[in-house]
Write a structure and sequence with these properties.
single chain, alpha/beta, Rossmann fold, two-stranded parallel sheet, 9 strands, 44% helix, NAD(P)-bd_dom_sf
Length: 261
């Protein structure tokens, strides 16, 4: 018996779903048969087959209105993907309290706000629902330069387990701890293709993820194939990041061999 991810008849809301990882997730959910709504703070062109709404996910009233709109238009809400987030580079000692507050607000509190609104609908409908929080490896290892972001993502992983226990059995809640992913902005973010290639050589998988690969993990967690998976934080990082000391030791060994020959 072949296993397929079938989300036909299900309605999914993907926050931050008009670009980058969120867009890739939305496209995979559409391919799996879901009716998809994306949201962002501004108007945007969603993936083909999706609709788009504007919403600042940090605003509880706006989030309530967005979820109500989705239910009004489609009759239900089966899947919420909390993808909206991110942070610019800023050293913790130099960033202002207001900056840190905004980062935590977007990456942690908005996730809780959207989850609360979705749960209120899912608890009352046949079949319940599934919430997938997009977290990050920054939440499980030091995150210099994005300290508040890393702390917020650690909070998302903790929140995921707590909500799974509070909201089960009708609503499953899981997280995806995402590693390095190639998007349209990757080269600019890391300083060029040569730097990206050097970074990719340190990843056991030999490359950064494609956005669709994150989307397929999300689609699995949203589907009946994951019917007994809740409270999990799934690592999607290509094998993880090589410890710096090991990388330097290997480089040193290569140099010594080169000098010996």
């Amino acid at each position: 018996m072949a296993l397929t991810i079938d989300l036909a008849g299900r309605v999914a809301l993907v926050t931050g779903g008009s670009r980058g990882i969120g867009r890739g997730i939305a496209e995979v959910l559409i391919e799996a048969g879901a009716t998809v709504v994306t949201c962002a703070r501004s108007e945007a062109d969603p993936p083909s087959g999706a609709t788009h709404v504007t919403c600042d996910v940090r605003d509880p009233e706006a989030v309530q209105a967005m979820v109500a709109h989705v239910v009004e238009q489609h009759g239900r809400l089966d899947v919420l993907v909390n993808n909206a987030g991110g942070a610019p580079y800023a050293l913790a000692a130099e960033a202002s309290p207001r900056f840190h507050d905004k980062i935590v607000g977007l990456n942690l509190m908005a996730t809780l706000t959207c989850a609360q609104a979705a749960n209120a609908v899912m608890q009352q409908q046949d079949g319940g629902g599934a919430i997938v929080n997009i977290s990050s490896v920054s939440g499980v290892r030091p995150s210099p330069g994005t300290a508040a972001y890393g702390a917020a993502k650690a909070g998302v992983d903790s929140l995921t387990g707590s909500l799974a226990q509070e909201w089960g059995p009708r609503v499953r809640v899981n997280a995806v701890d995402v590693g390095l992913v190639r998007t349209a902005d990757t080269a600019d973010h890391y300083g060029g293709d040569a730097t990206v290639a050097a970074i990719e050589r340190t990843i056991p998988a030999g490359r950064m993820a494609d956005v669709a690969e994150i989307g397929r993990v999300v689609a699995f967690l949203a589907s009946d194939l994951a019917s007994y998976v809740s409270g999990a934080s799934v690592a999607c990082h290509g094998g993880g990041e090589q410890p710096v000391f090991l990388y330097l030791a290997q480089r040193s060994g290569q140099n010594q061999q080169g000098e010996a020959t």
